[in-house]
UniProtKB/TrEMBL annotation:
PANTHER family: UDP-GLUCOSE 6-DEHYDROGENASE TUAD
Location of the active site: 262
Positions with a binding annotation for substrate: 151-154, 206, 251-255, 259, 324
SUPFAM superfamilies reported in the protein's UniProt record: 6-phosphogluconate dehydrogenase C-terminal domain-like (SSF48179), NAD(P)-binding Rossmann-fold domains (SSF51735), UDP-glucose/GDP-mannose dehydrogenase C-terminal domain (SSF52413)
GO biological process, one term: UDP-glucuronate biosynthetic process
MF-aspect GO terms: NAD binding; UDP-glucose 6-dehydrogenase activity
Record lineage: Bacteria, Pseudomonadati, Balneolota, Balneolia, Balneolales
Protein name: UDP-glucose 6-dehydrogenase
List of residues binding NAD(+): 30, 35, 86, 121, 154, 265, 331
Catalytic activity of the protein: UDP-alpha-D-glucose + 2 NAD(+) + H2O = UDP-alpha-D-glucuronate + 2 NADH + 3 H(+)
Keywords assigned: NAD, Oxidoreductase
Length: 442
């Protein structure tokens, strides 16, 4: 099939590359000429494991193209994917200006029957608005607008795309549903379902999924907070409840809160949609509040440990800046908030991340920049520090590191926001180890 992908951000690039790899002819469009030139030259602007191999193959074999010329891409396409940014607007609702602008242009570019697919996360009813905008310039019979939310996780996006647990397609048109099903069949050979439903339900499915996952994490974070008060261990509780298949083992890891470009924005957006429609989505209000405080809970523990709110004269090592491992994305990363809070209290930082130092520097405050030394090796971040703060669970921070802290640190004190180490092992290693929802080792 001929596919046009409008927008070469994270979702567009991964989707376009993976569709090309499954034998389609894909043209990705972006208004940013510099980016398009880089992509044509084989340079990928994001870090995503596994993407480069498929991307290079698509370019080499001539199935993956990049252009700024939307007209050329759209006029040949059987399917046009809208993978445009929908950042939070001032009022908590997603800003649809990019989507609506492209929708306005599409009508005059379409030649034969075309399926227009919204892959961006958009509020319920956006499909209707896109349909109206397109129909201003072209006959209604010549297109259908479909909702097809993506469920990619950063760091695992290629695998999630190539082997999805489900594909959701929102349309009332049999013709569009058939084309979309044909497109996705190669990706669900193992028998996972392609679920066709009405467009509004599909749009809401995406928000419901992210809000449910954010709630699941937040629930466990609150259980962890209770654990700390009553002397229980959240790891045991996770195992104890996760084995119940109704609850499930995944997404039960307590920590310093969820971050990233999706959960915070989507929880806020569905909460707003509910309010707009006269419904107070109370549980999500709590989720947002708990997550805010969870992000800096580790700083509160440091205050308790040192019995002061003044960290002047102290230097803390920071391991991990990205919002999660295997990405350089620092959007809504707990590390941003923690760095602010620590430097606000007078501390200096020695920070390391395998991928995200560059993005962190761009996003953090001048105060943090002035008070942080960035190092390019995890051991260098242990040099002469008062304590180590772990913000992201990169694999390289895991064992056997715990055995060596006592040798490598002036004072082996670890505040771990991601529960990387086994408590018994930490005890044997002779370190002070304060983690989330588990007894402190002192
Ligand atoms: C999330 C969803 O998992 C994807 O399905 C969805 O497609 C995507 O948002 C999106 O809407 O585009 P992502 O933001 O890449 O994907 O990251 P996750 O792996 O879901 O992690 C989100 C946050 O939850 C991270 O900050 C992570 O540290 C935290 N988390 C995750 C926990 O604190 N505990 C857990 O058990 C799992």
């Amino acid at each position: 099939m001929n596919i046009a992908v409008i927008g070469t951000g994270y979702v567009g690039l991964v989707s376009g590359t993976c569709f090309a790899d499954s034998g389609n002819d894909v043209t990705c469009v972006d208004i940013d000429k510099k980016k398009v030139d880089q992509l044509r030259d084989g340079e990928i602007p994001i870090y995503e494991p596994g993407l480069e191999t498929l991307f290079s193959r698509g370019l080499r074999e001539g199935r993956l193209h990049f252009t700024t010329d939307m007209d050329r891409a759209v006029s040949n396409a059987d399917i046009v994917f809208l993978c445009l940014p929908t950042p939070p607007g001032g009022d908590g609702q997603a800003d649809l200006s990019a989507v609506m602008q492209v929708a306005g242009e599409l009508g005059s570019l379409i030649e034969d029957y075309t399926v227009i697919v919204n892959k961006s996360t958009v509020p319920v009813g956006t499909g209707d608005r896109v349909e109206e905008a397109v129909a201003e310039n072209v006959d209604r019979e010549r297109f259908d607008v479909v909702s097809n939310p993506e469920f990619l996780r950063e760091g695992a996006a290629v695998d999630d795309f190539m082997y999805p647990e489900r594909v959701v397609i929102g349309t009332d048109s049999d013709r569009a549903a058939e084309i979309m099903t044909t497109l996705y069949e190669p990706f669900v050979r193992s028998g996972n379902p392609i679920i066709v439903m009405d467009r509004r339900s599909s749009e809401l499915t995406k928000y419901a999924a992210n809000a449910m996952l954010a709630t699941k994490i937040t629930f466990m974070n609150e259980i962890a907070n209770i654990c700390e008060k009553v002397g229980a261990n959240v790891d045991n509780i996770r195992r104890g409840i996760g084995t119940d298949s109704r609850i499930g083992k995944r997404f039960l890891f307590a920590g310093i809160g969820y971050g990233g470009s999706c959960f915070p924005k989507d929880v806020q957006a569905i909460h707003y949609t509910a309010a707009q429609n006269g419904y107070d989505f109370k549980i999500l209000d709590s989720v947002m509040k708990v997550n805010e405080s969870q992000k800096i809970s580790i700083v509160k523990k440091m205050e308790e440990y040192y019995e002061t709110t003044d960290f002047s004269g102290m230097t803390f090592g920071v391991w991990g800046l990205s919002f999660k491992p295997e990405t350089d994305d620092i959007r809504e990363a707990p590390a941003l908030y923690i760095a602010d809070e620590l430097t606000e209290r007078g501390a200096k930082l020695l920070a390391y991340d395998p991928e995200a130092i560059g993005t962190f520097k761009q996003a953090t405050s001048p105060k943090v920049l002035d008070n942080t030394t960035f190092v390019h090796d995890q051991k260098a971040a242990l040099d002469n520090i008062d304590a180590l703060v772990i913000c992201t669970e990169w694999n390289e921070f895991r064992r056997p590191t715990v055995d060596n802290f006592a040798d490598e640190m002036k004072q082996p004190i670890i505040f771990d926001g991601r529960n990387l180490y086994d408590l018994e092992r930490a005890r044997k290693a002779g370190i002070t180890y304060i983690s989330v929802g588990r007894p402190a080792i002192n």
